[in-house]
Design a protein that fits this description.
Elements (H helix, E strand, L loop, with lengths): L10 H4 L1 E7 L19 E2 L3 E2 L1 H11 L3 E6 L4 H10 L10 E6 L13 H6 L2 H7 L3 E6 L3 E2 L3 H11 L3 E9 L7 E5 L5 E6 L13 E12 H12 L8 H12 L2 E5 L15 E2 L4 H10 L27 E3 L1 E2 L2 E2 L1 E3 L2 E2 L4 E3 L2 E3 L2 E2 L4 E2 L4 E7 L4 E2 L4 E7 L4 E2 L4 E2 L3 H7 L1 E2 L5 E3 L1 H8 L1
Parallel strand pairs: 1-4, 1-6, 4-5, 8-12, 14-19, 17-20, 18-21, 19-22, 20-23, 21-23, 22-24, 23-25, 24-26, 25-27, 25-29
Antiparallel strand pairs: 2-3, 6-11, 7-13, 8-11, 9-10, 15-16, 28-29
GO molecular function: glucose-1-phosphate adenylyltransferase activity
Keywords: ATP-binding, Carbohydrate metabolism, Glycogen biosynthesis, Glycogen metabolism, Nucleotide-binding, Nucleotidyltransferase, Transferase
Family: Belongs to the bacterial/plant glucose-1-phosphate adenylyltransferase family.
Length: 423
């Protein structure tokens, strides 16, 4: 495993706190986030997207963790309570869930990412971490934050910003930075329409991963300064980072320096599964013989809430009615009863009835596909009941009338969409 090390050599992580920003909806996921925040969206069969940032923190040696929630947080909070309650105060470990709440000044919403931390300064001060690692809760990747902490201290930076090289025009959704030969950030643009390229590689741009490291006392000073500015948007990407680029020392940390890879992972893996197409692709990629993201890496496990369910079950073995899954991931509690799944990902408790065919399907927990249904290139929301004989993914015009169909031909199916058809 790349960047492997013992806990004894990770003192900075032990005195740091991870603060995960998990309040956003993720509106580009359309109806998939109608009932849950983007960090709570299911991924990879049994995990939620937020589990990656949290697992990275724990695996890096960080034992003080807080999660700020806001948009439709019930599903997320329930998952955190069930899956992340193993940190123990008696071992000097903490795990705090921090929903937006009524404060002394009457404010009851987080106004931006920086404000989410600012409103909880009193809670953080009680824990007295030496450094703060600010994390986005909606990306899929494996990273050892200890290396980023070490670079922060060694460089004498005011803020260290995690960054990754992406195709230039894909960087319009990110903060984009210019750096000099010493990795100092000399310019920072939040979500530019025409992102600047990397010198020498104009087809790529250096995008912020939404990961920031600060010395805690300095961070509080900046948050209080920003809160006193009536024109601020109270946001790290729009306000805090650009201010420090101009008036302090902001340093870039390249993801490849701290990404964690097993022997099966050829290149650094990081995904913002923020659109239906990207979400479908990231899940279906896991069905490859050698996927870009190794979920079977026991040296860097992705922790999550493990629902108690029976093993997956495959039944019937006659021609045309054979329970089978080919090039697919099938989670616990699934029953493939005389149906077939190909290049698909079935989350917990999915039931495929006889004569069903699923090809390129991302089926979230407890989806029930009735007899004779055919699904091609779909994302099906949790608990949806696909009617008998229904065909989705073969007729673009008909699909667009009934479901959310993307430009790449992926169909998002929710129960509300099906109820409209039946009505």
């Amino acid at each position: 495993m790349t960047n492997s090390r013992s806990q004894a050599s990770a003192p900075l992580a032990r005195t740091a706190m991870a603060f995960v920003l998990a309040g956003g909806r993720g509106s580009r996921l359309m109806e998939l986030t109608d009932r849950r925040a983007k960090p709570a969206v299911f991924f990879g069969g049994k995990s939620r997207i937020i589990d990656f940032a949290l697992s990275n923190a724990i695996n890096s040696g960080i034992r003080r963790v807080a999660v700020a929630t806001q948009y439709k947080a019930h599903s997320l909070i329930r998952h955190l309570q069930r899956g992340w309650n193993f940190l123990r105060p008696e071992r000097n470990e903490t795990f705090d869930i921090l929903p937006a709440s009524q404060r002394g000044d009457g404010q009851n919403w987080y106004l931006g990412t920086a404000d989410a931390v600012y409103q909880n300064i009193d809670i953080i001060e009680d824990l007295a971490p030496r450094h703060m690692v600010i994390l986005a809760g909606d990306h899929v990747y494996k990273q050892d934050y200890e290396h980023m902490l070490q670079q922060h201290v060694e460089s004498g930076a005011d803020v260290t910003v995690g960054c990754i090289a992406v195709p230039r025009m894909e960087a319009t959704a990110f903060g984009v930075m210019h750096v000099d030969t010493n990795a100092n950030i000399v310019a920072f643009l939040e979500k530019p329409k025409d992102p600047p390229g990397i010198p020498g590689r104009e087809d790529l741009a250096l995008a912020s991963m939404g990961i920031y490291v600060f010395e805690t006392k300095f961070l509080f000073e900046q948050l209080r300064r920003d809160a006193a500015d009536p024109d601020s948007q109270r946001d790290f990407g729009h306000n805090i980072i650009p201010y420090l680029v101009k008036h302090g020392k902001a340093v870039a940390h390249r993801f490849e320096r701290s990404c964690v890879r097993s022997s099966q992972e050829a290149v650094p893996y990081w995904r913002d599964a923020g659109t239906i197409d990207a979400y479908w692709e990231a899940n279906i990629d896991l069905t490859d013989v050698v996927p870009g993201l190794d979920l079977f890496d026991r040296d860097w496990p992705i922790w999550t809430y493990a629902e108690v369910v029976p093993p997956a079950k495959f039944v019937h073995d006659t021609e045309g009615r054979r329970g089978e899954a080919i090039a697919s991931l099938v989670s616990g509690g699934c029953i493939v009863s005389g149906g077939s799944a190909r290049r698909s990902l079935l989350c917990t408790g999915v039931h495929l009835h006889s004569y069903t065919k699923v090809d390129g399907g991302v089926l979230l927990p407890y989806v029930d596909v009735a007899r004779g249904a055919r699904l091609t290139n779909v994302v099906v929301d949790r608990g949806v009941r696909i009617p008998e004989g229904m065909v989705i993914g073969e007729d673009p015009i008909e699909d667009a009338k009934r479901f959310r169909r993307t430009e790449k031909g992926i169909c998002l199916v929710t129960q509300a969409m099906l109820d409209k058809i039946e009505a």
